[in-house]
Amino acid sequence: MSDKPAKQSARGKARKRALDILFEADQRGMYLDDMVAERRERAGHPAPLPAFALQILEGVIAHGRRIDDLIDSHSVDWPLDRMPAVDRAIMRLGVWEILYTDTPGRVVMSEAVALANDLSTDNSGRFVNGVLGRINDLKPSLSELSEVAEPQHAAAVSETDTDGDFDDDFDDFEGAVDGDDADDADDADATEDADDTDTDAEPHDSTGRD
After folding, report:
1. Is 203 within 8 Å of 53 (Cβ atoms)?
2. Which residues contact 69 (CB under 8 A, 6 or more apart)?
């Protein structure tokens, strides 16, 4: 049996690219939509943003206030502004995918836990799994609630650098995530492919208005 790790799916790579931008916007105190625009216009970037990454980011922009409220409500003993920035970004991505796509919750949670284990603290995988699990259990009732359309800037990220190591945190994370950028260029046309275990969702309305 080969020891070579399995090749990451196009959708998995897109999640990681979206996470990179969510984290960077948070650390720089930028509105997420401004961060997305900057990334799309950045000269010399190795690869365009995959379609699914853009879908994630547009979804978090459109529903950011509700997503943050849900994370804050279901995170026991850890307010949103006190949790590690990587965990915050992972859960924003995960909550959007649980509530606004057809991807099975167990698949979303598995992907989120893998990202947390790779990129955050020793306890982050369990923490992320617990919060997303509670929200996933409530999905039927949450999906039935009407949601007031939010202003585009409602997904403004927290400006709190909770551990005081702004530059170190960002450099460490960017190095871990951007290592996949070269591979993403080869997979840009394949981003609509589903993971082996999940199903494709209907594209989310890019206007972010329900």
Report:
1. no
2. none
Task: Give the tokens for residue 134.
Answer: 């509670």
| Cβ count within 10 A of residue 167 | 9
Torsion (CA) 44, 161, 172, 167 in degrees, nearest 10: 70
Is residue 81 within 8 A of residue 160, CB to CB? The reply is yes
d(CA 103, CA 194): 9
Residue 166: how many other CB atoms lie within 10 Å:
14
pLDDT digits (tens, 9 = 90+) for 141-184: 887 553 444 544 444 444 444 444 444 554 555 555 455 554 54
Question: Dihedral of the CA atoms 41, 84, 96, 39 (nearest 10)?
Answer: 0
Q: With contact defined as beta carbons under 8 Å apart, do 22 and 32 qualify?
A: yes
Note the pTM of the prediction, 2 decimals. 0.69
Query: Which H, E and C letters describe the chain, residue by residue?
Result: CCCCCCCCCHHHHHHHHHHHHHHHHHHHCCCHHHHHHHHHHCCCCCCCCCHHHHHHHHHHHHHHHHHHHHHHHHCCCCCHHHCCHHHHHHHHHHHHHHHHCCCCHHHHHHHHHHHHHHHCCCCHHHHHHHHHHHHHHCHHHHHHCCCCCCCHHHHCCCCCCCCCCHHHHHHHHHHHHHCCHHHHHHHHHHCCCCCCCCCCCCCCCCCCCC
Token pair for 29: 């105190």
